[in-house]
Amino acid sequence: MSYAENLFFGASPEIHKRARELRKQMTPAEKALWNILRNKAFSGLKFRRQHPIKRYIVDFYCHEQKLVIELDGSIHDEFNQSEYDKGRTTELEELGLKVIRFRNEEVFDGIDDVLKMISQYLSPSDFTKSEENHSS
Length: 136
Description:
Blueprint: H1 3-8, H2 13-23, H3 28-37, E1 48-53, E2 56-62, E3 67-72, H4 79-94, E4 98-103, H5 104-109, H6 111-120, H7 124-135
Parallel strand pairs: 3-4
Antiparallel strand pairs: 1-2, 2-3
């Protein structure tokens, strides 16, 4: 499997195009978290935003850690959306990815807690780097 196939898990050109569009329309919560994750500023890890994986576009993805971060607004409280999210998470986990979800309010009201939770999904050496970077 090539690097691109491994990175995108066979996402179609249409999914890539839609992801590019979504990068221009990020929600306020996505923008807030992206300001912390971008440019390897968090744990020295490369995060990608609005990243195509298979038939999905995930909010944030760290390929090195196989970590997907999703931010959910109030629409995710609706039953049909909630069921879709569960299936999507299961399918992503079947690809060997870790999926973590946060509510938009958590990003706005408790970003330090969000970052601590993300750190728990990283290997111990990355957690140390994360703590050093965030506390300085």
